[in-house]
Amino acid sequence: MRPSSFGLTISLLIAGTLWGCGGEPPPPAPAPAPTVAMSSGTPLETLFPLVDRNQYHYVTESDGGRGMLIARVRRDRPDGGTLQMPAGSKRFTYKPEGILLEREGMMPVYVLKQPVQVGNKWRGEHGGWVEIAEVGSAVQVPAGTYAGCVKTLEERGGDQPLRVVTTFCPEVGIVQLDAVSGGQFERAVLESYGAPVDLGPDGVTRIP
User: Fold this and answer.
1) What is the DSSP secondary-structure string of 111-131?
2) Which residues fall within 8 angstroms of residue 202, CB to CB, at 6 or more apart?
3) At 48, phi and psi to the nearest 5?
4) With contact defined as beta carbons under 8 Å apart, do 44 and 99 qualify?
5) Strand, coil or helix: what is 45?
6) C-alpha–C-alpha distance, residues 95 and 99, integer Å
7) Non-local CB neighbours of 163 within 8 Å, separated by 6+ positions
8) What pLDDT, on the 0 to 100 scale, is given for residue 8?
9) What pairs with residue 100 in β-bridges?
10) Domains along the chain with CATH numbers
11) Distance CA 179, CA 186 (A)
12) Which residues are registered as beta bridge partners of 81?
């Protein structure tokens, strides 16, 4: 499969521009020291958990064919962390009222916002309105079957219309993202996630 040009927004989550040129996957990070589990204690963290060193492998589909996308988590503080992707990094902060995407030189925007109920709306990353479209949904993707999921919909009109549906599942995060812009379409579905496997020179698996 080819590397995907798709950059997850986390709502994920479109890193850079939606239909920009793809880049090479980010280089593997050096092995860090053992980390201590962190939690913000905020109510929405379970729908978008940032567990240090976790990797998310997505299969993508678009008009150009199938691709792949890998997102790596860096959790360096209790109240948030960073997703590292081929098109760049996204920094998130957990707040009692929701999950913020930090943007350099711009106002932060919410990825998810309380209350988690159908119809709740807020301004999204791409200038449209984000609305909670479904709660308590069951979703099946290659990585597994999940319950209690939340779907958000961001829609933007005008000369550059955009429609992004993002599915968040408890204790996992984003499991599917569908984006349509004009006549272009791209989907990313979660294939696997978890801590990286450390294979030593002798081929023996070592737990980080």
Assistant:
1) EEESS-STT-EEE-TTSSEEE
2) none
3) -145, 65
4) yes
5) helix
6) 6
7) 153, 154, 155, 156, 179, 180, 181
8) 41
9) 93, 110
10) 2-27+39-198 (2.40.360)
11) 5
12) 92
25: which DSSP letter?
A: P
What are the residues whose beta carbons fall under 8 Å from the beta carbon of 134, sequence distance 6 or more? 118, 149, 150, 151
Query: What's the rounded Cα separation, in Å, for the pair 191 and 100?
Result: 25
- Locate 129 and state its tokens: 């309105």
Cα–Cα distance, 142 to 46 (Å, whole number)? 20
Segment 16-61, tens digit of pLDDT: 333 333 344 445 544 444 455 689 999 999 999 999 999 999 999 9
Q: Render pLDDT for 35-44 as a digit per residue (tens, 0 to 9).
A: 556 899 999 9
Residue type, 18: L
d(CA 208, CA 196): 8
3-class SS of residue 47: helix
Asked whether the beta carbons of 165 and 186 are under 8 A apart, the reply is: no
Cα–Cα distance for residue pair 102/16, rounded to 1 Å:
13
Euclidean distance between CA atoms 5 and 155, whole angstroms: 21
Nearest to 40 by CA among 93, 113, 112: 93
Peptide linkage before 115 cis (omega within 30 of 0): yes
The type of residue at 114 is Q
Helix (H, G, I), strand (E, B) or coil at 151: strand
Any residues with CB less than 8 A from the CB of 58 and at least 6 apart, and which? 4, 8, 68, 69, 70, 71, 188, 189, 190, 191
pLDDT at residue 188 tops 70: yes
- Contact (CB, 8 A) for 15 and 7: yes
